[in-house]
Amino acid sequence: MSYSETISKAKSIINSDKSRNEKLQAICELLDKDVDVFDWTGFYLVAKDEENMLELGPYVGEETDHTRIPFGKGICGQAANTLKTFVVQDVNKADNYLACSLHVKSEIVVPIMKEDRFVGELDIDSHTKDAITQDLQTLCEDICKELSAIF
């Protein structure tokens, strides 16, 4: 995986004529294919029907029971509350981790902002402990900055 190749492919997807959900699904598939240590890649979007609630959007990976997550609950909810990227290198040491799978060892959650409004987040799980390098964090954050244009 090369940062420049992946970000270039992501920009092409974002600038395509696809619908927003098709673009989000294509980003999930791109990251799943390009980054070996990403085992579940998906988006949680701000729910339209309930305040302070995240709703599962497009994703790649095994099914999850976590289709709705309140702001503040788990790593995803914490990122929604603080509007900061969260990197957890060992989920067993995170007391607020919502277990999705016994195989998950590390996680990154990156908020997506439309100007100053929180609209969703990229959530990635890895079956590898300490998988989220600074380069992978930068890649995810840069993709989320680009994604703000489609919200």
Question: What distinguishing features does this structure have?
Answer:
alpha+beta, six-stranded antiparallel sheet, 4 helices, 33% helix, single chain, 151 residues, Beta-Lactamase
Secondary-structure topology with pairs:
Elements: H1 3-14, H2 20-34, E1 40-46, E2 53-60, E3 68-70, H3 74-82, E4 86-88, E5 106-114, E6 117-126, H4 134-147
Antiparallel strand pairs: 1-2, 1-6, 2-3, 4-5, 5-6
Helix pairs in contact: 1-2, 1-4
Strand order in the largest sheet: 3-2-1-6-5-4
Q: Any low-confidence stretches, pLDDT <50, length ≥5?
A: none
Mean pLDDT: 93
Q: What is the string of helix and strand elements?
A: HHEEEHEEEH
Shape: globular
- Percent helix, as a range, is 25-40%
Tell me the fraction of residues in β-strands, as a range. Answer: 25-35%
In the residues, how many domains can be counted?
Answer: 1
How far apart are the termini? Answer: 27 Å
Question: Rounded to an integer, what's the Rg over CA atoms?
Answer: 14 Å
Which architecture would the CATH scheme give at its second level? Answer: 2-Layer Sandwich
Largest beta sheet, briefly? 6 strands, antiparallel
What is the CATH superfamily classification? GAF domain
CATH class: Alpha Beta
Number of strands: 6
Oligomer: single chain
**Structural class by SSE content:** alpha+beta
The CATH topology name reads Beta-Lactamase
Question: How many H/I helices?
Answer: 4
